[in-house]
What does this fold into?
Amino acid sequence: MSTERKQLPSPSAEDLLAQIKFDTENGKIWLNEQRMLLIHSGVMGSLRKELIETLGTERAKGLLTRFGYEAGQRDAELAKRIRPGMSNQDAFLVGPQMHTIEGIVKVRPIHIEMDIEKGEFYGEFDWHGSYEAEIHMSDFGPSEDPVCWTLLGYASGYTSYYMQRRILFKETRCVACGDGHCTNVGRPAEEWDDPAEIERYLKPDPIIDQLMALQTEVDVFKSGIGLLQDDELLYQSVGKSPAFKKVCKLINRASKSRVTTLLLGETGVGKEIVAKGLHLSSDRADKPFVAVNCATLPQELIEAELFGVEKGAFTGATQSREGKFERAHGGTIFLDEVIELTPRAQASLLRVLQEGELEKVGGSKILKIDVRIVAATNEDLQQAVSEGRFRADLFYRLNVFPVFIPPLRERTEDIPHLVEHFLEKYHSAYHKLTLGVSDKAMEAFNNYSWPGNIRELENMIERGVILTDNNQQIGLENFFPSLVEPSHPINIINSTGNLTSDVSAGQGQLVELAKELLKDNFKMESFEEILINTAMEQSEDNVSKAARLLGISRPTMAYKLKKLNEES
It folds into this structure.
C-alpha cells in the first residue's frame, strides 16, 4: 500500500446540495426526506462538557460515539439514494461531503480501497477544522488521547452500513493531542488488534440497563402495594396525550367497581384494547376475558353464541354447548358493535344486566352468571333508540358509565409512540429491522386525518415494513403509494358542500372542481373565505383542527383569520 499522502479527487457535491430544502414558512430544513437542524457549535460544546462532567469521560465518549454512529447510518442510507448510478467510491464519498457541508469537519480522503462484494475495506482520511477537537481544547485544554468521538462514530456507522459489515475507525492523530490536523483510519473489525476495545463504545451503556431495572422494580413494588395512580396508562395501551390519559383515568376508576361500561368512538380507535385494559386492571384480571364482535355473528345464531344452546334446540344443534357469557363467568365480556344485536338478543342481554341470569336457547334451566359487561359501538345508540333499532331500557342499562375514546386526529401527540410500538411488532413478525420512519413521512402522519384511526396506522406501518428492505428507512412512498408527497391530506368540497379530507381523492377531482369554479365570475378571495369559514365551522372553531383540514400550519391559519376579521 502506498504511503504517499495525496488528496483523492471527489465527485461534485452539487447533487447533494440540491437535496437541501429550506422550508422557511414552517421553520424546517430538509435533506431529502430527513429533517435537519442548524445548531450552534457552542451549544453542542456545552452539551458535550455537561456529559463529561456528569457521566465521566468514558461514558460520555460512548454516548457521543453512538450518537455519531447513528448519524452515519442515516447518511449512508441517503448516499445510496442520491448516487445510485455512480461507482461505489464516488457514492461512498457522500459521507465525507456531508460532514463538510454540515460544517462539522473538512474531510480529505487520502486513500480508499473498497470491494463491497468481498467485504474488503481500507480507508484513510484527514480531518481539518474538527469542531469537536476545537471545543474540547477550549473547555479542557490539550488531551493525551484523541477526542473526536462523534466524528469517529459517524465514520464507523456510515462505512459499516455502506459495506454491510462492521467497519471500525481509529483516530490516529488529533489536534487536541498537538497534531496539525486529525486523521482517522478504517478497517473491518477483525483486522484490528483490539476490536473489542473499539466496539465497547458502540454498546449500550450499562447504567441505562441498571436504571431501567431499578425503575421496573419500583413499578412492581408500587403495583404490589396499590399505589398506582388513577391516571396511569392502561395495560397494553400506547399513548401520552392528555386526551388519551383522560380515557385511562376514567377506565382505571371504572375498573375498581363492577359498573357496566359503554365505550364510544369511531371505528379503529382501539376499543377492544381499552376493554382489555379495564379487565386487567380490575379484580377480575385472573378470570376470563371474552371478546365478541356482534357484527360478525349470523343473526339466527347470535343468541346461541352468546347464551349457549341445548341439544336439539334447532336443526344442527346436535349437542349442548355453553355460550360466550358462560365462558366469561367470573370475568369480563366485551360486546363490540352491540347495536347489531337482534331484538331477542337485546332482551336476553337486558335480563343478564338486570337479574344476573340467563337461559340457553332451547333450555328451561335458569343459570346464574357473574360477568362484567363492557359494550362498544361506533354509532349513536341514542339515535338508534329514537329510530326503533335499539331498546331504550337496554341503552340506559349500558350507558351507566360511558367513555368516549377520541379519534387519532385529536391525539396526534401519540402518533410517534404508536409508530414505535407497531414497528417493534412488525419487525418481530417479519424478522426485519428497518431504520424507522423518515422525518417527511412522520410529518405526513401528523397532518393526515386518519379516518381509520389506529387500525389504519397499524396497517400502514405493516405495509411499510413489508415494502422496505433491511437497514433502510421507511419512506413516504411506502406509506402513501398513491401520492408523491402527501405532507397533508388533499382537501376537497364534496357534493353536500362539506369540506372533506381524503388522500385518495386524487388530483383529477381537484382539476374538475377548479374547472367548475372558473365557469362563472370566480373570485379567489371569496373562495378562500368560504373555505376558511367552512373549516372553522366543521372544527367547531378549533383553529388547529381547521388548519389540519385545510392542510396549512396553525400560524398561517391564525394569520388568515386575523386578516379576514380586519377586512370585515
About this structure: The mean pLDDT is 82. The first strand starts at residue 20 and ends at 23.
